[in-house]
Amino acid sequence: MSTVRPRPEASVPAAAASTDAAVFRTRADEVYAQLKRDVAEFILVPGDRFTENEISDRLGVSRTPVRQALFRLQQEGFVEVLFRSGWRVLPFDFEQFEQLYDLRMVLETTAVHRLCETDRHIDRRLIDTLADIWLVPAAQRSGDMAQVAKWDEAFHCALVAAAGNAEMARVHGDVTDRIRIIRRLDFTKQPRIDATYDEHAKILKAVRANRGDQAAMLLRAHIETSQAEVRKITLHQVHLARHAGKTPR
Q: What is the Cα–Cα distance from 24 to 13, expressed in whole angstroms?
């Protein structure tokens, strides 16, 4: 019985298909990241409707990576597909935000306790970097709300990362990603920026002095204040933030 051997060229389409798939995955990742930025920066807000073609045209990519990115965002609860009428950005799930803030509080207060335990290996360089931003005279504070919002997020992530538990940092990173849009709405008023500088400074000073209980108490109060601000957010504020963020392109 003769053996049928595949012709050498038969493997070429498979390799090409694999390459194409990798390209699409890369593009899908890029589209996914861009759409998440669009949500975080209020380019897309709850209730907005759009089609895959509109996203394809705007981002200059084909529909395949757009569809892959949207399905991923759908799984994460950012968008939903509408029957024969495109996609829609989902309304805020405030009950979920409450739960995420509770989880964030557990992770961060645990982290600052670990930072203040002298027998643990921690990353002091990260703490020193934070001090360069937050322990500055009032005259040197930034008034750029978008910048302070990014620094605020980095502050809390750095506290957890510095504590040296990679799994805690991973979970905290996921929580941070899911509450980003809400946190940025917390920085649309100057008094909140001033309060953030003051509160971060107190937390850092307690951590550097190895006062774990005090640091955790201050951090808990800080997060609870932000959590209370989240409960006050309205869709009107979201649309105001989008309007304020519009700049000529």
A: 16
